[in-house]
């Protein structure tokens, strides 16, 4: 099955089980100060899993775009990608294990057509120290489900992942196992980690993972289990035989003040399944690139005159990185040297570098139409943004070409030396933007035999740790804390956006935001620096609306009604049939109307409690065509 077929079958299947289809959130989290990117399907739904009511109800389903920057260096094997889609379904205090596990099993076997003989599952073994019981209920459900398909489901007690390499696949009966018990490191979920690490008040619970068995051989033709990983194979083994395709988290416990665990009053289900992985299983191909990136790979083969099987790593890196960059740019992140933009730049430059290794005289922009064509049905906004995406990629590619020229010139200073020190290599990477892979390649070609790679990695790690600390400080606080000052600035943010549209033009729309207790920040599309007169007029309008004491009203309505009212909405997002909107003033005469989940003040006059005047502190460029305002309530 194609990605589109699996995605649509999944959404339709769970819609048939009473779930409301909700749109994918942006890859750039809105009002979430904890991370630069949306890296999991559940991330946008954390407030609702913790008790907030979702406007679409208690049963939800979606396919969420995800980007994991930490996997950039991992791309190259048969399963790691930076960009992927996570299929998700949630029960917010509604159904639980007895519904979730049979539904997912039915979807895999009856809808996708997977052979139940190729499916293996894991469950939680329990935690005696914390008096958290073994998840026997999930194991019994699985046993029954497999039995109904004529599959004998023997149970194997694994415990730790490390012990799995000793125990292997065989149950006590001597038969191959089907259901495997693992400890909390593998089959327990909470934001804090294992039960020991959870603070009082933190919810958590066991999970149950499903693995697909690709058979007895890996892609390189060797036996499925490579003993370098351990003596025996097991579902969580990294040898390549098994691939996790879905995980059901059962949020049922809360840690109490005395350190013990009690049951949550409302128990939730949080499921995540890899779209690309399920599609790969549907074709029994353990190389997800031949399923999720096949059209891109075919295009690269034609345009470069090389074969995928001869250049596997290069093709995988180019296909994944180019796809991730397309989606990030579409969500408003342009390549630059800081925050999210840094990663777009890194993705594109690595793509160009690997094209260089193929000796291909083509531009990375040549693969963009193929990527957009693959996803245009689910994400039509890509088509609307195609020209801008291609422009941004072309500009970055041109900059990188100049960077390579400067870096090569700098590297020539060390020609004639036997080795390159960690400090000199670090300067090439950080000052000249010269990629490590290219340093190694060029140094070898010019007779530099040794590079202090380990020393360089240590310097780069220190550099990354400092950058990460700065990023965490920069994004400290935010709307997620829902403190009064933050909520007031959130309402001021809505008024500000409308004021910008009045002063600069109706084509101005939000492209990102971050709101703390100290200030608000809004990114918006506009092609030039604002004049002092424009900034003063925007301030005047915002302060006027604060002084007027206008009611701020939350309304629920159909998507069609909200569109007719001209409600502002998140760029590129899809919305359910019923939506939540906030209006500054009654709907029939509102100053502004936005799709929003809140929270807000009930009257603009409340903004005076934290200050008497709205003030723009700074207006600056973020990237081409995008400006940023930072403002406060003085």
TrEMBL record:
GO cellular component, one term: cytosol
Protein name, entry field: alanine--tRNA ligase
Family, per entry: Belongs to the class-II aminoacyl-tRNA synthetase family.
Gene3D superfamilies: 3.30.54.20, Bira Bifunctional Protein, Domain 2, Threonyl-trna Synthetase, Chain A, domain 2
Pfam families associated with the record: tRNA-synt_2c, tRNA_SAD
Gene Ontology biological process terms in this record: alanyl-tRNA aminoacylation
UniProt-listed Enzyme Commission number(s): 6.1.1.7
GO molecular function: alanine-tRNA ligase activity; aminoacyl-tRNA deacylase activity; ATP binding; tRNA binding
InterPro entries listed in its UniProt record: aa-tRNA-synth_II/BPL/LPL, Ala-tRNA-lgiase_IIc, Ala-tRNA-ligase_IIc_anticod-bd, Ala-tRNA-synth_IIc_core, Ala-tRNA-synth_IIc_N, Ala-tRNA_ligase, Thr/Ala-tRNA-synth_IIc_edit, tRNA_SAD
Domain Alanyl-transfer RNA synthetases family profile: 1-634
Keywords of the record: Aminoacyl-tRNA synthetase, ATP-binding, Ligase, Nucleotide-binding, Protein biosynthesis, RNA-binding, tRNA-binding
Entry coiled-coil feature ranges: none
